[in-house]
Amino acid sequence: MDEDALAEELRQSIGELVRAVRVVDTMPPGEAAALGFLDRLGPMTTADLAHRRRVTHQSAAKSVKELLNAGLVRTEPHPGDGRKLLLHITGDGRARLQRERDRRAGTLDAAIRDVFTPEEREQLRACVPLLSRLTAHLTGD
After folding, report:
1. Residue 132: exposure state from Cβ atoms within 10 A (0-12, 13-18, ≥19)
2. What is the average pLDDT score of the chain?
């Protein structure tokens, strides 16, 4: 298999896997993504979220509005620029995000146990650091 074919097969397979796991989600992907960034990276502005998610400011603002209305995020004035607001994940937001993560992980864990032998699960485990390194390269992290 040449490198181009490997890249395309990996892209397609990972995309299908992500979509299959998202079937159990109970919140829109944009809102879950925003909560995830706030949880992992700490407070940020709506513009920062839009940049991180690689979406328009308008799209990020829509997700933020829903999260604010649900009490999953809160705002405070930006310390360096009074015209901006910093978004913080709330305790309720963190709990909701954890439920989403647990649901996804449980679904994936059950499928892994159903589909793979113990030896194949070890092969899969060995691939995780490689995929993480690839993701870090692509995202610049």
Report:
1. exposed
2. 94
